[in-house]
Fold this protein.
Amino acid sequence: MMDSIKLLFEYVAIFFICYMLVYSTFLFLSVTVGTSVLYKQLQRRQMKNELQHDYYIPISIIVPAYNEDVTVVDTVISLLNSKYQLFEIIVVDDGSKDNTSQALIDYFELNPIERPIRKLIPCMPEEACYLGYRDNIQITLIRKKNGGKADSLNMGINASQFPYFICMDADSMLQDDALEKIIQPVLENRDVIACGGLINIANGVTIINGKVIKYKLPNNILIIMQALEYNRSFLASRIFWDQFNGNLIISGAFGLFRKDMVINVGGYDHDTLGEDMELVVKLHSFCRSHQIPYSIKYEPDAICWSQVPETMSDLIKQRRRWHLGLSQSLWKHRNLIVNPKSGIVGLTSYSYFLFYELLSPFIELFGLLTIMLAFSVNIINVQFMIIFYLIYAGFGAILSLTAFFARIHTQNLKLDLIDVLKVISLCLLENAGLRLVIAFVRMTSFFRYKKKKNHWGEITRQKMNIDL
């Protein structure tokens, strides 16, 4: 009997080690490719000036907002600081209970107007529309009945005038060249139907006239660990998948889309918590099933600064929502993994998100529990497992630091010695500590997250350091 149990544990250990080795290999490739791309872009910027052109593709910028009176004015100010010359701003207030609309009306001197909106995509009805101008940029505010973030985005699409739109969160800020950068892939290739920008953590950052003048890591340990995670898991992996047209996620904080394609697929889905990922997967599925030439890009030079949770309770709520949204999107478009037309999207991207994002918390925690059980019955090589875990954690920490400092250097940001020491001292804790906590949270999202109709997944906002 003991021999059978020992054999079972050995098989589990082999599977778990292989699983972690494959994931570590992917992280290594992602960070290597991501760092290489960032430095190539830096060299290109240093060797020649950015191409100056008089031709601008008009863009509609849609900002959905719910109870965002603390940050929404700053977000619009950051948009007005853009170097881009042809865009409109549409803020959709989804039945806020605070002063979101009034803050915009007062600051930008918006006036009520009568404006019928053609509903190309179904959404809740508007209650009032306001219009104003600042530096020849049209600012539209639409107040509507509460319907959720996806519904607000659909309203913004319906109200937009231009062939491309950008969705961004009401707690985010764009750098002054972000619009020029994110539209560049479209200028180079008209098959591009969507493009994501780089999301940096705004907590502690000071921006004036669309430029970062002070980059200071806050004293909040949780924010610093999220910064490490963002650069390793989000920045590096998305640059990697971009090489194969395999990105399944464009962050809802900053993404560009071709309006006619989004209308063709029915807009944002009201029934999923991860409406941003669901739309991208839906675009992949639609274009491949209809054999439409397309490309979905990622542009790390297009930089958006967005706030992240500052408390563990807010982080837990955010990650549960993200993970449940991921599961809904993958389940809804599960045909991608079995459809031969899906190509690399189904074979690699979908498989990666299934086994190393959706199921990873179950696999990792199962492996950890198995090791603990094997240790309790004295059938595990403790020395080997400790060495393996330390190597894995150390390897992950090195990759995290590589991705983090590559971003800092290529974006010409400056860190003082104290911030450098903060990052180095916390990288092991993030990789070995926060990762396990997040894995447990993601696993429990299926059991403890109660879906709320029209739920926005709010987190506590802070006033942003921004000025005209």
In short: The CA atoms of residues 203 and 467 lie 15 Å apart. The domain at 55-348+455-467 is CATH 3.90.550.10 (Spore Coat Polysaccharide Biosynthesis Protein SpsA; Chain A). Residues 2-47 form the longest helix (46 residues).
